[in-house]
Specification:
The chain is an alpha+beta fold. The protein is 32% helix and 26% strand. It is built from one helix and five strands. Strand 1 (91-97) and strand 2 form a beta hairpin.
């Protein structure tokens, strides 16, 4: 009869307890990782929206100032939108932008950003006879443009624009 070799337990594998502990730890860790990833993605999208809204507002400011500096200068704003003066009614203008922040002349269904501009004359408390004319400009950037009014992300900006000293 041939002698059988003695069986010696192997030390290479994991015990059932080690596997269960590892699975329990992973079961708690993976959902937290997914929540953190979702939160990071949401923050990135909000930052991207804020950045693009700031670009659009800067573009609108430049276009308004070009339009008000000279009616002949190309500003990309075709609608009549004169500089607000004393006793003039408030003005309202809407512009459309695509997903890259470029101004478009298309139906609202093709736009991603809706820009609403409100302007009114602003009287300075220290206004004298040679005071500069000022306008209070409110710019609202809304996204998505074709979404329901109450469900749009909105970014609002306000600034004072000057026209220059009276002659």
């Amino acid at each position: 009869m041939i002698p059988m070799p003695k069986f010696q337990p192997c030390q290479r594998g994991f015990s059932l307890a080690e596997v269960l502990i590892t699975l329990a730890i992973m079961g708690f860790a993976i959902p937290w990782i997914l929540v953190a990833t979702r939160s990071t993605l949401s923050s990135r999208q909000t930052a991207e929206l804020d950045t693009r809204a700031n670009w659009i507002v800067r573009d609108v400011q430049q276009r308004l100032m070009m339009k008000w500096a000279s009616g002949d200068q190309a500003s990309g704003i075709d609608q009549a939108f004169p500089f607000p003066v004393r006793d003039s009614p408030g003005q309202h203008l809407e512009l459309l932008y695509d997903q890259h922040g470029e101004s478009i002349r298309a139906p609202i269904s093709q736009a991603v950003y809706l820009v609403r501009i409100d302007a009114e004359h602003h009287e300075s408390p220290q206004a004298g006879p040679l005071a500069t004319e000022r306008a209070r400009i409110r710019i609202s950037v809304q996204q998505p443009a074709n979404g329901p009014e109450g469900k749009r992300n909105k970014r609002a900006y306000e600034y004072l624009a000057t026209r220059g000293a009276k002659q």
